[in-house]
Design goal:
This protein is of the alpha+beta class. It has two domains: 3-88; 107-348, 2-Layer Sandwich (BirA Bifunctional Protein, domain 2), CATH 3.30.930. The chain is built from twelve helices and eleven strands. Strands 1, 5, 6, 7, 8, 9, 10 and 11 form an eight-stranded mixed β-sheet that branches. It has a three-stranded antiparallel β-sheet with strand order 2-4-3. Helix 3 (36-43) packs antiparallel against helix 4. The longest helix is centred in the N-terminal third of the chain and has 40 residues, at 49-88. It is elongated. The two termini are 73 Å apart. The model has no long low-confidence stretch (mean pLDDT 91). The protein binds phenylalanine. Phenylalanine binds at residues 174, 176, 221, 260, 263, 293-295, 316-318.
């Protein structure tokens, strides 16, 4: 076969190759040890010097042409494969995600949304404060002066440095400092002061860790300041809230006298439960579980908030959001909330578009 003929044949089959395997097969058949082009190259050794001078460049040119054609065809095939793959993997972001790609809303976020929805219906606004607090807002203004023993009970994380005002800095140990911030805010906006109705959900920190305690957890604070507020308002509010949250009418509350420096009188609230298949279910009154701390806002706290305690009264309450989520949705290990295990999240998480509403139901598991 002439060199020209061999070249034409090889270039034709290269042009017709449709995948990488076909290209490789042609390469081996032409340039491999037993290949047709390699066989031609071997004939050079037996040639006379004259012959070699005329045939050598032709055979080498053949090898180069075939090598270049193989590389060009390979590039073209790979480029086309990439194009096809990119086209096939196009994601239409307007389509609903397949199940395996769908994230979920963490039960804590869901419960915070549920609480905001329930309290918004009762006229409460959502307030927030910093997680890095100073000891005046976290303790002093809440009637816990420096030597107060309740400070020691909070297992506080302190920062090494004080702030510009010389106040000690810490990670807030409860959401109660938002009471002070909300009062000072309302006074700033309106020198007459209150009324005020807020809830403040958020992260809080204590140096504590076991099956029922994590160093970071979530609380929600409630505060109402108005004229003529009394314990009856507190009890009605908590009852209405817990019935809406647990979505049952048979919620029974038990109020016990208690002590918090920032409320006077202070009331600890238990909710009745029933045993269903050995599990505690909120509702009825077979047993009691503590769910809330609350009370009438201490006069000193109202004054620290910049309001006249002879004119304004109020009630406040605080509770653990994680606890509420566990009670409502039946998880039993607090630590799992913060492990980020996708299996747990896909089991206990909520559909992203399942926004809690009072009419549609607050909180329907996926
Ligand atoms: N801050 C209290 C706690 O962390 C709860 C509480 C809030 C009690 C408001 C009374 C009033 O335990």
């Amino acid at each position: 076969m002439s060199i020209e003929q061999l070249k034409a044949d090889l270039l034709e089959s290269i042009a017709g190759a449709s995948d990488a395997a076909a290209i490789e097969q042609i390469r081996v058949a032409a340039l491999g040890k037993q290949g047709s082009v390699s066989a031609l190259l071997k004939t050079l050794g037996a040639m006379s010097a004259d012959e070699r001078q005329s045939e050598g460049p032709r055979i080498h040119a053949l090898r180069e042409a075939v090598t270049a054609a193989l590389a060009a065809r390979k590039d073209a095939i790979e480029g086309a494969a990439l194009e096809a793959r990119l086209a096939a993997e196009t994601i239409d972001l307007s389509l609903p995600a397949p199940d395996r790609l769908r994230g979920s809303v963490h039960p804590i976020s869901q419960v915070m949304d549920e609480l905001a929805e329930i309290f918004a219906d009762m006229g409460f606004a959502v307030a927030a404060g910093p997680e890095i607090e100073d000891d005046w807002h976290n303790f002093t203004a809440l009637n816990m002066p420096e030597s107060h023993p309740a400070r020691a009970m909070h297992d506080t994380f302190y920062f090494p440095d004080t702030n510009a005002d010389g106040r000690e800095m810490l990670l807030r140990t409860h959401t109660s400092p938002v009471q002070i911030r909300a009062m000072l805010d309302v006074v700033k906006q309106n020198p007459g002061g209150a009324p005020l109705r807020i809830i403040a959900p958020g992260r809080v920190y204590r140096s504590d860790s076991d099956a029922t305690h994590t160093p970071m957890f979530h609380q929600i604070e409630g505060l109402v300041i108005d004229k003529g507020i009394h314990l009856g308002h507190l009890k009605w509010t908590l009852e209405t809230f817990l019935k809406a949250f647990f979505e049952r009418e048979d919620i029974v509350l038990r109020l016990r006298p208690s002590y918090f420096p920032f409320t006077e009188p202070s009331v600890e609230v238990d909710v009745g439960y029933s045993l269903v298949g050995g599990k505690r279910v909120v509702g009825g009154s077979e047993g009691w579980m503590e769910v809330l701390g609350s009370g009438m806002v201490n006069r000193k706290v109202i004054a620290a908030g910049g309001l006249d305690p002879d004119e304004w009264q109020g009630f406040a309450f605080g509770t653990g959001v994680d606890r509420l989520a566990m009670l409502k949705y039946g998880m039993d290990d607090l630590r799992a909330f913060f492990d980020g295990d996708v299996r747990w999240l896909s089991h206990y998480g909520f559909a992203p578009l399942d926004v809690p509403t009072l009419s549609g139901g607050v909180g329907t598991p996926v």
